[in-house]
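Bump. Still looking for LysR family transcriptional regulator structure tokens.
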Amino acid sequence: MTRTTLPSLNALRAFDTTARTLSMSAAAEQLHVTHGAVSRQIRQLEEQLGLTLFERAGRGVRLTPAGARLATTTTQVFSQLEQTCDQLRREAEDAPFVLGCSGSFLARWFIPRLDLLKHDCPGLELHLTAIDEEQPLRTGIDAALRFATPPWPADQDVIELAPERIGPVLRPDLLVGSEDPAPDSLQRLPLLQTLSRPQAWPEWCDRFGLDSHALQPQQSFDHLNYMLEAALVGLGVAIAPEYLVEEDLRTGRLLAPWGFIETEAQLTLWLPRGARDPRAQQLAQWLKQRLSP
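Sorry for the wait, here they are.
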């Protein structure tokens, strides 16, 4: 089968960069070429396709409908090329598998189990790095662990590992004199929340038939880990994923007298679409085993 001749890679790169910046000058700066070189590449691309890809818009440019259609493809293709080349380069260098996850999950669940990972998967060299759960996968990260809710994005492969379970946790001395406290006893206790999960308390209250408006958190924290540290020093009741407080519950530093509920979210492993690194599947299988009750 004869393959249709494609435009030059340089022309497509010039178009893609201009489509992202909507400025030929900015594109030229990013590509380390002159404004004229970018303009010529785009003009040659338009001549070869027989289409206009950009229109003038003030000091910049804007995409025509045909340009917008091509930009959707070039963005995806160049992203995949960068990810694949980066993966091949690191595999050739015998680089470790880079896993990103939130700092709280990293500190409270993953690091305490690194010895288990090394024992169960001795050939898997892992590098852990803290990332924001909302942060897109960037070059240099092979996979990311996230608590997330479907539907999943089309440009990512998402492996569901375990359901999220959340519940209130507090220091034992906050419940002195209450051997079997009812959920509504939370109304007399200071509540803590994290700004990244404002829906946690309302979701838990709804499950127990409580009025979430009657349970207003008195202190908020930017990160879940800070909230849990506040709970450990007795500042109030935190609402947290069960996975992150397992060790605290086991040692008795925290109590979960009202248990945990499953939410619609899942703990998931996110990979670039089409990633073929066998280490990702090995890691996913290990995570499923260690996260299971």
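Residues 9-79 form a domain with the Arc Repressor Mutant, subunit A fold (CATH 1.10.10.10).

Edit: fixed formatting.
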